[in-house]
Queue: 2 jobs
Job 1
Amino acid sequence: MFALCPDDVGVILTYRCHGSCAHCVYNCGPRWKKESMSPEMLRQALEATSIWPQRPQVHLTGGEPFLHFDLLLEGTRIAAELGITVYLETSASWWADEEKGVAYFRALKEAGLQAVLISCSPFHAERIPAIRTIRAACAAIDVFGAHRTIIYQSQFLDVMRQFDVERPTPLSRYEEAFGAEVAHRILWQGFGVISGGRSGYALGHLAPKRPAEAFARENCAGTLLYARHSHFDLYGNYLPGFCGGLTVGDWRELGQVLDDFQAERYPPLIEVLIERGPYGLMKLAREDHGYVPCEEGYTGKCHLCVDVRRHLVETGDFTELQPRGFYENF
Ligand code: SF4
Ligand code: SF4
């Protein structure tokens, strides 16, 4: 199996969105700089995917890609022109005007968009009234068809409907309604929260914590070398798997990155994570950079990894720890 050979590449047009969701592994939100990928860079990102013999499908994403609708439309056109299977991912936070929303979907379909993924979870619903998710999903089904509309994760629609869908629902309402234990199970296990990004901090109370030593036997070779799902962002970062804030290299030099990985030449922190996982990273940080492990422990291996990286970004100079905005938006 070849290293770095994804079958789905997400192109992050911006890290900004209305959400700031507690489970977000990329730490997206409204406090990021108002920056988006340029149309030229977007074309470059889409063209770059031709390097793989089996071209991956692409999803245009964020943050919230509808914050830059013209760019989203242009990216869809370019992808269609290049023969790339393309879909988009949205939180539907922008869905206030039905007519405008339907017009957007129709324009995207005409430009060649093949499917829409609408994010749906109690974490999104903390800031985005569920009615927007529901209306956007219904419109997407009308325009694209049910088989080209993915509601991720649709099992939460019924749960979310138990609250006032016209308003955001704080997560604390789940505890009030179902009791702490059931609420924690619905939210953490039910969603399958990844403990990276801000989730280990913002949702740490939902999951048991374990000491760093509990993760000593886990490495990240599978994710860092063979992730099927990866991202190119607007700053040039190639982010493997769901590892927000961690880049294996610059996708604008993708040929070189792939050659290096084939030859097993890795950036230093990536090498540590491949061979020794986040526990190895923690030991390096403790021995060389004064990291002190959290007494209360970590909700998962990615929580440990992120916590150590937050320390390393302050105490060292590691090009792998990008984008910097990730570390400024917990
Ligand atoms: S999960 Fe989506 S909507 Fe929520 S903060 Fe991340 S990008 Fe924004
Ligand atoms: S521990 Fe770190 S490198 Fe490994 S999968 Fe999680 S975020 Fe990625």
Job 2
Amino acid sequence: MSENTPNLSVDQAFDLSDTDIADLCDASESAILDGGGFGWLKPPPRDLLERYWRGVLLVPERELFVGRYDGRVVASAQLVLQPRNNEAQNRIATITTNFVAPWARGHGLARDLAVACERSARQHSVRFINLDVRETQEAAIQLYETLGYERWGTNPNYAVVNGKTIAGHFYTKSLRGGSRKKGRKK
Ligand SMILES: CC(C)(COP(=O)(O)OP(=O)(O)OC[C@H]1O[C@@H](n2cnc3c(N)ncnc32)[C@H](O)[C@@H]1OP(=O)(O)O)[C@@H](O)C(=O)NCCC(=O)NCCS
């Protein structure tokens, strides 16, 4: 490995240090300012962003995966499972908020995050993953289509950004095989 090759890793986050949360907030802010936020069009106040990420860790149906670049959190994605009462959909999960800080893109972190979400979904006996992206999120569209996600529909009225109506594409992928995971977050 050359000296300039970054050390990259992706893991599920069960707990995050204050430094990790600060790095995740920095990464979120830079992604939002770059136009690729996850719903946010402008960075929210820092304390709200921090509470958002700490809240994600507490939601039983949400699994947070983080991508690290030389040890610092620069990316994340969430696997959203169904609440226990939703038996009809307990084999369905969603991947959301897969983003990478602009300066850390192009190293495969988003792909590794999506694959980590899929691996965990399989372990929960999930059979299908659904997700949706704005039509303007071209890198994400490429990413998911190359991972085998099938576009099944487009909603022309998916989002309104700076007064402009934006379409959104809806994808689904069937998962095969894998071993069952014991338990979820309590
Ligand atoms: C989409 C995003 C997460 C990709 O992050 P990344 O770490 O650069 O992606 P990776 O390096 O893992 O690349 C994986 C694949 O994504 C696609 N991709 C990444 N950047 C791309 C670009 N600029 N143009 C087209 N495709 C691109 C490619 O298919 C790539 O595979 P390849 O390297 O084999 O060609 C990043 O651009 C981002 O944060 N965008 C804003 C947020 C967003 O759109 N999130 C998705 C919906 S919530």
